[in-house]
Structure formats: structure tokens, C-alpha cells
Amino acid sequence: MAVLDTAAPWCILTPQVGALIADDLDAVPGTFRLSTRLGLIEGKLYRGSLLLFADEGESLDLEVTFFLSPHWTGGNFLGYECALERARFAVDPRANLFYFGEIE
User: Fold this and answer.
1) How many CA atoms lie within 13 A of 81 on its CB side?
2) Which residues lie across from 43 on neighbouring strands?
3) How far apart are CA 58 and CA 64, in angstroms?
4) For 7, phi and psi rounded to 5 degrees?
5) Which pLDDT score is estimated for 5?
6) Per-residue pLDDT tens for 28-85?
7) 53 has which bridge partners?
């Protein structure tokens, strides 16, 4: 589960989830800082694949950038830049549904 955050520059993962997938991702050289509601967080960027599973229709595989930090305590976030900007999507907040598809 992740919070959809259209203001987030990257997908942000908890340290526990990040540790599970970091070995399967490509590291971006350097250290990066992310300004969040919890303050300035320092971490690393990784590029890799994110599979959005569909309840109906086809699942979608996106190339995204993840921000991983051992100091992050805010949960998992699905960001817009370097992630959702590569897909068409819509949100129905009343039904708590997230619709997505491939950009053609």
C-alpha cells in the first residue's frame, strides 16, 4: 500500500520495503535531500521497475525513481515525477479507487 502524492518528486519507500528491493534496483550516484512535511530527509535514489497490479484489465509496469532513506518514517508514497507522469491515471476518492493505463 502507498499514498498517492502528486507533489512528490519520486516514489518514497519505508526503510523496510526499500531493504527488500534495493538489490534489484540501479543506484543513482550521490546523496539527495528531500523536503517533506517531516523535515529535510537525506537519502539515495534508485531506478527500477514498479508493477501496478490491476483488479480488472491489465497491470502496468513503469520505470520509476525511488527515494530510499533509513531516516524516513512517513510511509510509502507513489510520486508523480519520475513515476506517475509516465502513465494515465485517475482517482475516484468517494469509491477509493485508482484507475491507470499506459500512455500511447
Assistant:
1) 5
2) 32
3) 18
4) -95, -10
5) 83
6) 999 999 998 888 999 999 999 999 999 989 999 999 999 999 999 999 999 988 888 8
7) none
| pLDDT tens digits along 9-20 | 999 999 999 999
Cα 66–Cα 53–Cα 65 angle in degrees, nearest 5: 10
Residues in Cβ contact with 4 at an 8 Å cutoff, skipping those fewer than 6 apart: 77, 78, 84, 91, 98
3 state DSSP class of 65: strand
Question: What is the CB neighbour count within 10 angstroms for residue 77?
Answer: 20
Q: Which of 1, 81, 10 is nearest to 41 (CA)?
A: 10
In CATH terms, the fold of domain 3-102 is Cathepsin D, subunit A; domain 1 (2.40.70)
pTM of the complete model: 0.86
- β-pairing, 3-5 vs 77-79, is parallel
pLDDT at residue 4 is higher than 90: no
